[in-house]
């Protein structure tokens, strides 16, 4: 799997997680991630509160 | 009684600053130069990751923070993208939406009256600007012991940006984007 495939697969996983309403987190740079993706344990990630977009 | 929330409740102000410094340390706090006394955070995010678009955002507190009226989308923290400007993107999308739905009225009927999903317009200075509808007001917490912070609002905004970019790229349908059930 090349790098583009990895990025596309990650994006699909994120899209599905968002649609299911799974918890996602946001890194200090604003990157939206799955909780399992957090690569640097020293960087605090904020969990996005549950809530329907208005 | 102090008019501004940050004078009335210095503990809440400290908690807001602490949360932003912890989760989004590159953002800095300022006061609008328009005499309104309103505070705002300014900084950049890249919600889709290092290869994604950089968004320059302002998170502007209303002076009654924390508060969420029935039609106050995003509660008392307004999220204004400075770059890219939502109004510019929306104006580019509107002709495509009108082509898809056949008329402007049909765009309105499908929730795309402003050209993008989940946005609202409001006056800002002398201009009318488009803001991100981060969350239904019922999810914005306004209690004495627990209220929605700028950090939480920014995390909602980052999620909105990812969804908006997916929609603009054709990765999710209009219905899914409008559903907003995330």
Describe this structure in words.
The complex is a heterodimer of chains A (54) and B (182). Chain A has 54 residues and is of the alpha+beta class. Chain A has a domain at 3-37. Chain A contains one helix and three strands; from the N terminus they run H-E-E-E. Chain A has a three-stranded antiparallel sheet with strand order 2-1-3, with no helix packed on it. In chain A, a hairpin with a 5-residue loop joins strand 1 (25-26) and strand 2. The model of chain A has no long low-confidence stretch (mean pLDDT 85). Chain B has one domain. In chain B, 36% of the residues lie in helices and 20% in strands. Chain B has six helices and six strands, in the order H-H-E-E-E-E-H-H-E-E-H-H. In chain B, the strands form two sheets. Chain B has a four-stranded antiparallel sheet with strand order 1-2-3-4, with helices on one face. A two-stranded antiparallel ribbon of chain B has the order 5-6. The longest helix of chain B is centred in the last third of the chain and has 19 residues, at 150-168. Chain B is globular and about 55 Å long. Chain B starts with a helix and ends with a helix. Chain A binds chain B through residues 7, 11, 14-15, 18-19, 21, 24, 26, 28-32, 44-54, and chain B through 22-26, 44-52, 55, 73-74, 117-118, 120, 133-137, 139-140, 148, 151-152, 154-156, 158-163, 166, 171-172, 176, 180-182.
Give the SSE order of chain B as H and E letters: HHEEEEHHEEHH
Which stretches of chain A are poorly predicted, pLDDT < 50 over at least 5 residues? none
- Regions with little confidence, pLDDT below 50 for 5+ residues of chain B: none
What is the terminal-to-terminal distance of chain A? 38 Å
Which term fits the overall shape of chain B?
Answer: globular
- Radius of gyration of chain A, in Å, reads 12 Å
Biggest sheet record of chain A:
3 strands, antiparallel
Distance between the termini of chain B: 39 Å
The biggest beta sheet of chain B is recorded as:
4 strands, antiparallel
Largest interface, and how many residues on either side? A-B, 25 and 46 residues
SSE string of chain A, helix = H, strand = E? Answer: HEEE
Radius of gyration of chain B: 17 Å
Number of helices of chain B: 6
- The tally of strands of chain A reads 3
How would you state the average pLDDT of chain B, rounded? 89
């Amino acid at each position: 799997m090349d790098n583009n495939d990895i990025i596309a697969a990650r994006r699909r996983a994120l899209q599905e997680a968002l649609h299911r309403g799974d918890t996602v987190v946001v890194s200090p740079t604003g990157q939206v991630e799955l909780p399992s993706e957090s690569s640097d344990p020293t960087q605090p990630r904020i969990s996005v509160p549950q809530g329907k977009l208005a | 009684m102090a008019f501004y929330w940050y004078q009335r409740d210095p503990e809440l102000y400290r908690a807001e600053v602490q949360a932003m410094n912890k989760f989004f340390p590159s953002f800095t706090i300022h006061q609008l130069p328009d005499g309104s006394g309103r505070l705002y955070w300014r900084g950049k995010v890249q919600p889709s990751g290092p290869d994604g678009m950089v968004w320059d955002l302002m998170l502007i507190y209303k002076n009654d923070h924390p508060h969420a009226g029935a039609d106050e989308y995003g509660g008392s923290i307004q999220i204004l993208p400075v770059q890219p400007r939502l109004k510019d993107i929306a104006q580019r999308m509107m002709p495509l939406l009108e082509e898809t739905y056949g008329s402007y009225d049909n765009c309105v009927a499908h929730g795309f009256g402003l050209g993008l999903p989940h946005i609202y317009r409001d006056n800002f200075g002398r201009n009318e600007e488009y803001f991100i509808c981060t969350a239904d007001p019922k999810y914005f917490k306004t209690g004495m012991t627990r209220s929605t912070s700028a950090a939480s609002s920014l995390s909602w905004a980052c999620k909105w940006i990812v969804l908006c970019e997916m929609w603009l790229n054709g990765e999710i349908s209009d219905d899914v984007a409008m559903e907003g059930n995330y």
